[in-house]
Protein backbone atom coordinates (compact mmCIF):
# COMPACT_ATOMS: atom_id res chain seq x y z
CA UNK A 1 0.00 0.00 0.00
CA UNK A 2 1.27 3.45 -0.83
CA UNK A 3 1.39 5.69 2.23
CA UNK A 4 0.84 9.42 2.15
CA UNK A 5 3.76 10.14 4.44
CA UNK A 6 4.03 12.99 6.89
CA UNK A 7 1.62 14.16 9.55
CA UNK A 8 0.35 17.48 8.17
CA UNK A 9 -3.01 18.49 6.87
CA UNK A 10 -4.04 18.51 3.22
CA UNK A 11 -6.70 20.59 1.52
CA UNK A 12 -7.36 19.88 -2.11
CA UNK A 13 -4.94 17.06 -2.87
CA UNK A 14 -5.88 14.50 -5.49
CA UNK A 15 -8.10 11.94 -3.79
CA UNK A 16 -6.75 8.77 -5.36
CA UNK A 17 -3.49 7.45 -6.64
CA UNK A 18 -5.11 5.81 -9.68
CA UNK A 19 -7.43 8.56 -10.91
CA UNK A 20 -7.04 9.02 -14.61
CA UNK A 21 -9.35 12.03 -15.01
CA UNK A 22 -10.70 14.66 -12.68
CA UNK A 23 -13.94 15.65 -14.45
CA UNK A 24 -16.54 14.35 -14.43
CA UNK A 25 -16.07 12.38 -11.24
CA UNK A 26 -17.63 8.97 -11.76
CA UNK A 27 -19.00 7.66 -8.49
CA UNK A 28 -20.67 4.53 -7.23
CA UNK A 29 -22.83 5.57 -4.29
CA UNK A 30 -23.48 2.79 -1.78
CA UNK A 31 -26.18 3.96 0.62
CA UNK A 32 -29.02 3.24 3.04
CA UNK A 33 -31.38 6.22 2.64
CA UNK A 34 -31.80 7.85 5.26
CA UNK A 35 -32.27 11.62 5.14
CA UNK A 36 -28.60 12.52 4.79
CA UNK A 37 -28.11 9.81 2.13
CA UNK A 38 -31.03 11.27 0.23
CA UNK A 39 -29.58 14.77 0.30
CA UNK A 40 -26.24 13.38 -0.88
CA UNK A 41 -27.94 11.71 -3.84
CA UNK A 42 -29.72 14.94 -4.76
CA UNK A 43 -26.44 16.84 -4.53
CA UNK A 44 -24.68 14.33 -6.77
CA UNK A 45 -27.53 14.43 -9.29
CA UNK A 46 -27.38 18.21 -9.52
CA UNK A 47 -23.62 18.66 -9.56
CA UNK A 48 -22.47 19.45 -13.10
CA UNK A 49 -19.21 17.53 -12.78
CA UNK A 50 -20.53 14.29 -11.28
CA UNK A 51 -21.58 11.15 -13.10
CA UNK A 52 -23.40 8.61 -10.95
CA UNK A 53 -22.23 5.30 -12.37
CA UNK A 54 -24.45 3.29 -10.02
CA UNK A 55 -26.43 3.47 -6.80
CA UNK A 56 -26.40 0.41 -4.56
CA UNK A 57 -28.26 -0.07 -1.32
CA UNK A 58 -27.44 -1.86 1.91
CA UNK A 59 -29.46 -2.60 5.03
CA UNK A 60 -28.68 0.07 7.63
CA UNK A 61 -30.86 3.01 8.58
CA UNK A 62 -33.77 0.72 7.79
CA UNK A 63 -34.27 -2.71 6.25
CA UNK A 64 -32.95 -3.33 2.76
CA UNK A 65 -36.47 -3.31 1.30
CA UNK A 66 -37.23 0.10 2.79
CA UNK A 67 -33.93 1.81 1.96
CA UNK A 68 -34.11 0.49 -1.60
CA UNK A 69 -37.61 1.92 -1.96
CA UNK A 70 -36.27 5.21 -0.63
CA UNK A 71 -33.35 5.23 -3.07
CA UNK A 72 -35.70 4.72 -6.01
CA UNK A 73 -37.97 7.52 -4.75
CA UNK A 74 -35.05 9.95 -4.34
CA UNK A 75 -33.72 9.03 -7.78
CA UNK A 76 -37.19 9.85 -9.12
CA UNK A 77 -37.19 13.27 -7.43
CA UNK A 78 -33.70 13.88 -8.83
CA UNK A 79 -34.73 12.99 -12.36
CA UNK A 80 -32.30 10.07 -12.56
CA UNK A 81 -34.59 8.11 -14.86
CA UNK A 82 -31.82 6.00 -16.32
CA UNK A 83 -29.81 5.45 -13.16
CA UNK A 84 -28.61 1.98 -12.24
CA UNK A 85 -30.08 1.27 -8.80
CA UNK A 86 -29.54 -2.17 -7.28
CA UNK A 87 -30.23 -3.74 -3.89
CA UNK A 88 -27.27 -5.28 -2.10
CA UNK A 89 -26.73 -7.04 1.22
CA UNK A 90 -29.55 -7.15 3.74
CA UNK A 91 -27.46 -8.06 6.78
CA UNK A 92 -23.90 -7.76 8.11
CA UNK A 93 -21.15 -10.23 7.30
CA UNK A 94 -21.19 -11.86 10.74
CA UNK A 95 -24.01 -10.47 12.88
CA UNK A 96 -27.46 -12.04 12.65
CA UNK A 97 -29.45 -8.95 11.70
CA UNK A 98 -29.00 -5.38 10.60
CA UNK A 99 -29.22 -2.58 13.17
CA UNK A 100 -31.72 0.11 12.14
CA UNK A 101 -32.28 3.71 13.27
CA UNK A 102 -36.06 4.33 13.35
CA UNK A 103 -35.85 6.99 16.07
CA UNK A 104 -33.67 9.15 13.82
CA UNK A 105 -35.02 8.32 10.36
CA UNK A 106 -38.54 7.10 11.09
CA UNK A 107 -40.35 3.87 10.34
CA UNK A 108 -39.79 4.22 6.59
CA UNK A 109 -36.16 5.28 6.93
CA UNK A 110 -37.11 8.54 5.20
CA UNK A 111 -40.05 9.96 7.14
CA UNK A 112 -41.19 13.52 6.45
CA UNK A 113 -41.52 14.03 2.69
CA UNK A 114 -44.19 12.37 0.59
CA UNK A 115 -42.26 9.77 -1.36
CA UNK A 116 -43.29 9.62 -5.01
CA UNK A 117 -44.07 6.37 -6.75
CA UNK A 118 -40.72 5.43 -8.26
CA UNK A 119 -40.33 5.87 -11.99
CA UNK A 120 -36.78 4.52 -11.82
CA UNK A 121 -36.55 0.77 -12.31
CA UNK A 122 -34.69 -1.49 -9.90
CA UNK A 123 -31.80 -3.29 -11.58
CA UNK A 124 -32.30 -7.06 -11.19
CA UNK A 125 -28.65 -7.68 -10.35
CA UNK A 126 -27.33 -7.90 -6.81
CA UNK A 127 -25.73 -4.67 -5.66
CA UNK A 128 -22.38 -6.33 -5.07
CA UNK A 129 -22.36 -7.60 -8.66
CA UNK A 130 -23.15 -4.08 -9.86
CA UNK A 131 -20.21 -2.66 -7.89
CA UNK A 132 -17.82 -5.28 -9.27
CA UNK A 133 -19.05 -5.05 -12.86
CA UNK A 134 -19.03 -1.25 -12.86
CA UNK A 135 -15.49 -1.01 -11.53
CA UNK A 136 -14.11 -3.76 -13.73
CA UNK A 137 -15.70 -2.33 -16.89
CA UNK A 138 -14.32 1.18 -16.29
CA UNK A 139 -10.83 2.44 -17.02
CA UNK A 140 -8.64 1.98 -13.93
CA UNK A 141 -8.72 4.98 -11.64
CA UNK A 142 -11.94 6.47 -12.99
CA UNK A 143 -14.45 5.19 -10.40
CA UNK A 144 -14.64 6.45 -6.82
CA UNK A 145 -16.60 4.38 -4.33
CA UNK A 146 -18.63 6.48 -1.90
CA UNK A 147 -20.13 4.23 0.80
CA UNK A 148 -22.54 6.05 3.11
CA UNK A 149 -23.93 3.12 5.09
CA UNK A 150 -22.59 -0.09 6.62
CA UNK A 151 -19.69 -1.39 4.53
CA UNK A 152 -21.11 -4.85 3.85
CA UNK A 153 -21.46 -4.44 0.07
CA UNK A 154 -17.98 -3.00 -0.35
CA UNK A 155 -16.32 -5.69 1.76
CA UNK A 156 -18.22 -8.43 -0.06
CA UNK A 157 -17.10 -7.00 -3.41
CA UNK A 158 -13.48 -7.01 -2.22
CA UNK A 159 -13.73 -10.63 -1.10
CA UNK A 160 -15.53 -11.76 -4.24
CA UNK A 161 -13.32 -9.91 -6.74
CA UNK A 162 -10.06 -8.63 -5.18
CA UNK A 163 -9.07 -6.98 -8.47
CA UNK A 164 -11.49 -4.12 -7.77
CA UNK A 165 -9.08 -2.82 -5.13
CA UNK A 166 -6.45 -1.88 -7.68
CA UNK A 167 -8.89 -0.31 -10.11
CA UNK A 168 -10.80 2.27 -8.08
CA UNK A 169 -9.56 5.82 -7.65
CA UNK A 170 -10.38 5.88 -3.96
CA UNK A 171 -12.90 4.90 -1.34
CA UNK A 172 -14.41 7.94 0.36
CA UNK A 173 -16.65 6.67 3.13
CA UNK A 174 -18.88 8.21 5.74
CA UNK A 175 -18.24 6.37 8.94
CA UNK A 176 -16.20 6.22 12.07
CA UNK A 177 -14.55 9.04 13.92
CA UNK A 178 -11.19 9.64 15.53
CA UNK A 179 -12.49 11.02 18.84
CA UNK A 180 -16.11 9.94 19.26
CA UNK A 181 -18.99 7.62 18.49
CA UNK A 182 -22.74 8.08 18.24
CA UNK A 183 -24.34 4.66 18.66
CA UNK A 184 -21.93 3.91 21.53
CA UNK A 185 -19.41 6.25 23.16
CA UNK A 186 -16.71 4.68 21.01
CA UNK A 187 -18.39 3.65 17.76
CA UNK A 188 -20.23 5.35 14.91
CA UNK A 189 -23.39 3.74 13.51
CA UNK A 190 -22.16 2.59 10.08
CA UNK A 191 -19.01 0.97 11.44
CA UNK A 192 -20.73 -0.51 14.50
CA UNK A 193 -23.43 -2.09 12.33
CA UNK A 194 -20.86 -4.21 10.48
CA UNK A 195 -17.37 -3.83 11.97
CA UNK A 196 -16.07 -6.95 10.25
CA UNK A 197 -16.91 -5.41 6.88
CA UNK A 198 -15.25 -2.15 7.94
CA UNK A 199 -12.14 -4.10 8.90
CA UNK A 200 -11.99 -5.62 5.41
CA UNK A 201 -12.34 -2.21 3.76
CA UNK A 202 -9.72 -0.43 5.86
CA UNK A 203 -7.27 -3.35 5.62
CA UNK A 204 -7.44 -3.64 1.81
CA UNK A 205 -4.52 -2.13 -0.16
CA UNK A 206 -6.30 0.95 -1.45
CA UNK A 207 -6.65 4.54 -0.30
CA UNK A 208 -9.56 5.14 2.05
CA UNK A 209 -10.66 8.60 3.16
CA UNK A 210 -12.58 8.35 6.42
CA UNK A 211 -15.15 11.13 6.68
CA UNK A 212 -16.18 10.55 10.27
CA UNK A 213 -18.18 12.25 12.98
CA UNK A 214 -15.45 14.74 13.83
CA UNK A 215 -15.95 16.22 10.36
CA UNK A 216 -19.63 15.59 9.75
CA UNK A 217 -20.73 17.25 12.99
CA UNK A 218 -19.54 20.50 11.40
CA UNK A 219 -22.15 20.17 8.60
CA UNK A 220 -25.31 21.18 10.43
CA UNK A 221 -28.51 22.06 8.62
CA UNK A 222 -29.39 25.18 10.59
CA UNK A 223 -32.63 27.07 10.14
CA UNK A 224 -30.82 29.48 7.81
CA UNK A 225 -29.85 26.51 5.63
CA UNK A 226 -33.42 25.19 5.61
CA UNK A 227 -34.69 28.60 4.54
CA UNK A 228 -32.21 28.66 1.65
CA UNK A 229 -33.64 25.37 0.42
CA UNK A 230 -37.18 26.68 0.92
CA UNK A 231 -36.37 29.78 -1.13
CA UNK A 232 -35.51 27.62 -4.16
CA UNK A 233 -39.22 27.06 -4.72
CA UNK A 234 -38.57 23.82 -6.57
CA UNK A 235 -39.73 20.25 -6.19
CA UNK A 236 -36.29 19.12 -5.05
CA UNK A 237 -35.87 22.08 -2.71
CA UNK A 238 -39.25 21.45 -1.10
CA UNK A 239 -38.41 17.75 -0.78
CA UNK A 240 -35.25 18.67 1.15
CA UNK A 241 -37.22 21.03 3.41
CA UNK A 242 -39.72 18.27 4.19
CA UNK A 243 -36.84 15.91 5.00
CA UNK A 244 -35.13 18.39 7.30
CA UNK A 245 -38.39 19.34 9.02
CA UNK A 246 -38.59 15.72 10.21
CA UNK A 247 -34.88 14.99 10.56
CA UNK A 248 -34.06 18.08 12.65
CA UNK A 249 -36.44 17.42 15.57
CA UNK A 250 -35.80 13.65 15.43
CA UNK A 251 -32.04 14.17 15.55
CA UNK A 252 -32.41 16.72 18.35
CA UNK A 253 -34.40 14.25 20.42
CA UNK A 254 -32.03 11.37 19.72
CA UNK A 255 -28.62 13.07 19.75
CA UNK A 256 -29.20 16.46 21.36
CA UNK A 257 -28.10 18.60 18.39
CA UNK A 258 -29.88 21.93 17.87
CA UNK A 259 -29.51 21.37 14.10
CA UNK A 260 -28.94 17.99 12.43
CA UNK A 261 -25.59 17.12 10.85
CA UNK A 262 -25.96 15.85 7.27
CA UNK A 263 -23.26 13.21 7.64
CA UNK A 264 -23.36 11.40 4.31
CA UNK A 265 -23.32 14.53 2.18
CA UNK A 266 -19.83 15.26 3.50
CA UNK A 267 -18.38 12.10 1.97
CA UNK A 268 -19.89 12.90 -1.42
CA UNK A 269 -18.56 16.46 -1.25
CA UNK A 270 -15.06 15.25 -0.39
CA UNK A 271 -15.17 12.83 -3.33
CA UNK A 272 -16.19 15.43 -5.91
CA UNK A 273 -14.93 18.75 -4.46
CA UNK A 274 -11.99 17.61 -2.33
CA UNK A 275 -10.71 21.03 -1.31
CA UNK A 276 -13.88 21.73 0.68
CA UNK A 277 -12.70 19.15 3.22
CA UNK A 278 -9.32 19.24 4.95
CA UNK A 279 -7.74 15.85 5.57
CA UNK A 280 -4.59 14.53 7.15
CA UNK A 281 -2.77 11.22 6.76
CA UNK A 282 -3.66 8.51 9.23
CA UNK A 283 -3.90 4.80 9.90
CA UNK A 284 -7.25 3.30 10.92
CA UNK A 285 -7.90 -0.02 12.61
CA UNK A 286 -11.38 -1.29 13.46
CA UNK A 287 -11.88 -2.77 16.91
CA UNK A 288 -13.71 -6.10 16.65
CA UNK A 289 -13.48 -7.59 20.12
CA UNK A 290 -13.59 -4.84 22.75
CA UNK A 291 -16.36 -5.20 25.32
CA UNK A 292 -17.03 -1.46 25.25
CA UNK A 293 -15.28 -0.49 22.02
CA UNK A 294 -16.52 -2.87 19.30
CA UNK A 295 -16.78 -0.89 16.06
CA UNK A 296 -14.39 1.85 17.19
CA UNK A 297 -12.18 3.28 14.44
CA UNK A 298 -8.84 3.44 16.25
CA UNK A 299 -7.05 6.23 14.41
CA UNK A 300 -3.30 6.87 14.46
CA UNK A 301 -2.39 10.29 13.06
CA UNK A 302 1.26 10.16 14.18
CA UNK A 303 2.61 6.89 12.79
CA UNK A 304 3.24 5.25 16.13
CA UNK A 305 5.31 2.05 16.12
CA UNK A 306 6.22 2.69 12.49
CA UNK A 307 2.67 2.41 11.14
CA UNK A 308 2.21 3.51 7.56
CA UNK A 309 -0.17 6.48 7.39
CA UNK A 310 -1.92 4.83 4.50
CA UNK A 311 -5.32 6.51 4.56
CA UNK A 312 -6.75 10.01 4.88
CA UNK A 313 -8.83 11.27 7.79
CA UNK A 314 -11.20 14.23 7.36
CA UNK A 315 -10.71 16.92 9.99
CA UNK A 316 -12.12 20.29 8.92
CA UNK A 317 -15.01 21.46 6.75
CA UNK A 318 -15.29 24.75 4.89
CA UNK A 319 -18.89 25.16 6.02
CA UNK A 320 -19.85 28.12 3.83
CA UNK A 321 -18.48 26.53 0.65
CA UNK A 322 -20.07 23.22 1.61
CA UNK A 323 -23.58 24.65 1.80
CA UNK A 324 -23.11 26.82 -1.28
CA UNK A 325 -22.11 23.70 -3.20
CA UNK A 326 -24.94 21.51 -1.88
CA UNK A 327 -27.70 24.09 -2.28
CA UNK A 328 -26.36 25.10 -5.70
CA UNK A 329 -26.45 21.48 -6.87
CA UNK A 330 -30.00 20.92 -5.62
CA UNK A 331 -31.11 24.17 -7.31
CA UNK A 332 -30.06 22.73 -10.70
CA UNK A 333 -32.37 19.75 -10.48
CA UNK A 334 -35.41 21.70 -11.66
UniProtKB/TrEMBL annotation:
Keywords: Glycosidase, Hydrolase. The lineage of its organism: Bacteria, Bacillati, Actinomycetota, Actinomycetes, Micrococcales. GO terms for cellular component: cytosol. The gene is rihB. The keyword Magnesium does not apply. Residues 27-324 form the Inosine/uridine-preferring nucleoside hydrolase domain. GO terms for biological process: purine nucleoside catabolic process. GO terms for molecular function: purine nucleosidase activity. It comes from Georgenia subflava. The keyword Hydrolase applies. InterPro entries: Inosine/uridine_hydrolase_dom (IPR001910), IUNH (IPR023186), Ribo_hydro-like (IPR036452). Residues 1-26 are annotated as: Disordered. It comes from the Bacteria. This is Ribonucleoside hydrolase.
Amino acid sequence: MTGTGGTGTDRGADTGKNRGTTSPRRVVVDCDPGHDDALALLMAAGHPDVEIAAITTVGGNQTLEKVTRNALAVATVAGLEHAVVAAGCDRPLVADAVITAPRTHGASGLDGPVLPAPTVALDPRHGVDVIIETVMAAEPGTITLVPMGPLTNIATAVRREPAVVGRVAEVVLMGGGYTKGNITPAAEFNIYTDPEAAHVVFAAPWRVTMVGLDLTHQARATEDVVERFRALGTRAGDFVVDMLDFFGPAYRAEQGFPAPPVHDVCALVRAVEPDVVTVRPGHVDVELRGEHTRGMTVTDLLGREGRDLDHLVATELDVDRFWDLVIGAVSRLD
